[in-house]
Amino acid sequence: MMAEPANALGVPLRLLAEGEGVSAAQVIGDHQVGDYRDLDTLRRITDGCSVVTFDHEHVPTEHLHALAEGGLDVRPGPDALVHAQDKIVMREAMTRLGAPQPRWAEVATREEVVDFGLPCVLKVSRGGYDGKGVWVVRTAEEIVEPLEAAARTGVRLLAEELVDFSRELSALVARAPSGQAAAYPVVATLQVDGVCKEVIAPAPDLAADLGASAQQLALRIAGELGVTGILAVELFESRDDQGNPIVLVNELAMRPHNTGHWTQDGAVTSQFENHLRAVLDLPLGSPEPRARWSVMVNILGGDRPEVGRLYDGYPHALARDARLRVHLYGKDLRPGRKVGHVNVYGDDLDDCLERARHAAAWFRGDLGNESE
After folding, report:
1. Could you tell me which of 24, 29, 110, 253 has the fewest CB atoms within 10 Å of its CB?
2. Which contiguous run of DSSP H or E holds residue 214?
3. Model confidence band, residue 295 (pLDDT cutoffs 50, 70, 90)
4. Contact 284, 176 (CB under 8 A)
């Protein structure tokens, strides 16, 4: 998805792909297949490049330091990116910054988890995403699985309080090495089984002062951590002891993020273009929305492989809604896998929600193949 604005700007991309035929390799001709965990591979693919950036956070931190020490511009740099790679490092940084966040502790034994307090959330410090590596534990017996998973993979384990929240929000900002920054509207996200299902921009009924404070929080985190590119600050909307609405930092992502996919069609400048501009230290584009409301709904692989064949969904979906924007990833269908998303924008939120949800359900196969 970064290839489209790169082509428009005349910026050549080179890709390290995990396999032939993966999504990015389908649209970036200059690509090599290799393992991002291998330093020699990273050095080979980045030879002659001006800047290196990422579409996930899993490249080993020590390899990024080695590339930077070799004179390569790594953006975001490893000292910033580690806060999106390691959840305990991130929690420590949020504590130093005084950012609002859930109560947390590093734990290594069942006794330490029990002392922290049940129920709670346990997370592996590295490698988890889309609900993987995350457990809600309510009994001492349920602590065993996450402890074993952490020991098996050699990572630390984080305990967090189980927050009583009303909804999840995301504050997305872009920041360039020059210090210029741009903040997108704070959005509401719907998560199902740890996977983002839909996003509404801006978050409905969000108090103006709370939305502004969430944007300022994201901008402050980006500046204090030295982020270059897109930063997504995932938030819980909750209430303090006096019943006042507050936001708490859940997680950080330093890359174009699923909660910002609405910007492809709903904002003046997409998160993908602004990430590209930022890592090249170009002036950032406007994050302003094009319409009052934008809705993004993910297309997930269904449980029935015989229906929901993605490209078969185009005739119905596009004929039903001439303003619908569809983005498919060229991925094989698997249950629960993100294989695309749809974007809708307009002045009526209920209308936008109905159109986006219908289209995503049609592509998924939930509505069958009957015509209206």
Report:
1. 29
2. helix 208-225
3. very high
4. yes
User: Is the distance from CB of 169 to CB of 186 less than 8 angstroms?
Assistant: yes
Distance between CA atoms of 22 and 17, rounded to whole angstroms?
Answer: 7
Residue 107 dihedral angles phi and psi, to the nearest 5°: -130, 155
Fold of 103-161: Dna Ligase; domain 1 (3.30.1490)
Copy the structure tokens of residue 372. 């209206």
Identical fold, 3-84 and 167-364:
no
Question: Measuring CA to CA, how many Å separate 86 from each of 49, 157, 175, 244, 279?
Answer: 27, 10, 21, 31, 22
* Alpha-carbon span 182 to 229, nearest angstrom: 10
- Return the CATH superfamily for domain 167-364: ATP-grasp fold, B domain (3.30.470.20)
Query: What does DSSP say about strands 181-183 and 134-137: parallel, antiparallel, or unpaired?
Result: unpaired
C-alpha span between 315 and 359 (Å, rounded)? 11
Q: Where are the domains of the chain?
A: 3-84, 103-161, 167-364
Q: Is 50 exceeded by the pLDDT of residue 229?
A: yes
The CA distance from 161 to 120, in Å, is 5
Q: What is the pLDDT of residues 65-124, one digit of tens each?
A: 999 999 999 999 999 999 999 999 999 999 999 999 999 999 999 999 999 999 999 999
Question: For tokens 């346990």, what's the residue?
Answer: 122
pTM for this one? 0.94
How large is the average pLDDT for residues 42-68?
Answer: 95
Of the candidates 97, 85, 95, the residue with the CA atom closest to the CA atom of residue 219: 97
Q: In terms of Cα–Cα distance, which of 314, 195, 213, 325 is closest to 267? A: 325
Instruction: Give the pair of three-digit tokens for residue 2.
Output: 């970064």
Supply angle C-alpha 93, 97, 99, rounded to 5.
95
For domain 3-84, the question of CATH label 3.40.50.20 is answered with yes
Q: What one-character-per-residue DSSP string does 310-340 give? A: GGGGHHHHHHH-TT-EEEE--PPP-TT-EEE
Instruction: For residue range 303-358, list pLDDT tens digits in order.
Output: 655 445 788 889 999 999 999 999 999 988 888 889 999 999 999 999 999 999 99
Mean of pLDDT over the chain = 94
Q: To the nearest 10°, the Cα dihedral for 255, 256, 258, 259? A: 100
